[in-house]
Each structure stands twice: as structure tokens, then as C-alpha cells.
Amino acid sequence: MITCYLRYVIDPDKIAEFEEYAKMWLNLLPRFGGIHHGYFLPSEGESDIALSMFSFASLAEYEQYRKDAAKDPDVAEAVAFAKRTKCFLRYERSFFRPVLPEVG
């Protein structure tokens, strides 16, 4: 399993727009085989940082998602919404390998 961690620098005056963008992706990502772990918006402390995490079974599945998403009209709509509203200024993406409790 591979987990993608996204750290966004958002416009604090556009949290509602960023939340709308996040909800789009919460519905989109599972269509491509991913598991979304949610978005995390500012509550206390820094008001311009938002986080998101999602996982795929493997890096190969993540790479396939990127190819398929690039051709999807709903993804294009989400990307256009972010560009139009400028609800985030930039983001950084990191990948992690989770260590989970053993089942059994």
C-alpha cells in the first residue's frame, strides 16, 4: 500500500471554496480505485494549511489513477474549479508506506 499525503497552502478567505473542491475529490478518487482518508481543514492554529491523505494498493495503481484521471471530465471540472476560485495557492505531495496493526 502507498499513501499520498498532500499539504495545501490555502487562502484563508476561501475555505468554503476549498471545502467544495475537497468534496469533489472525496467522490472522485474512489472511482479510480483509491481509498480517501479525508481532508483536514484549519480549526485552530495556522489558518492557511489544509491536509489530505489517500491510498492505493501499490505505486503502479497510483500511476494508473494519474493516467486515467488526466482523461476524466469530472476531474477536469474539479481542476478548473480550483483554478477559477484560487482556493489554494500551492501544495506539496509526499508518499508514505503505512505500518498497520496485524490482523489475526
UniProtKB/TrEMBL annotation:
Residues 7-99 form the NIPSNAP domain. Pfam families: NIPSNAP. It comes from the Bacteria. Gene3D superfamilies: 3.30.70.100. InterPro entries: Dimeric_a/b-barrel (IPR011008), NIPSNAP (IPR012577). This is NIPSNAP domain-containing protein. The lineage of its organism: Bacteria, Pseudomonadati, Pseudomonadota, Alphaproteobacteria, Hyphomicrobiales.
